[in-house]
Design brief:
Largest sheet: 3 strands, antiparallel
Order of helices and strands: HEHEE
Shape: flat
Radius of gyration: 13 Å
Distance between the termini: 20 Å
Number of strands: 3
Strand order of the largest sheet: 1-3-2
Amino acid sequence: MSESSDIKKEASKLELIAKKEVVYSDELYKVVDFLNKNLKNKKVIIGISKNGDMATISIYET
């Protein structure tokens, strides 16, 4: 299987639990990284996307 189809397969297994828009800060990436490292065994993934001066933090169940 190609890497592209592996990513699509993994994405289809994610269920969005919650989403929150906040003012963007460079420190948010550190928080998201910390949470992902410490919650990986809980079947949770945290995502972040930036849009101008705002960021959206999403929580997914795997």
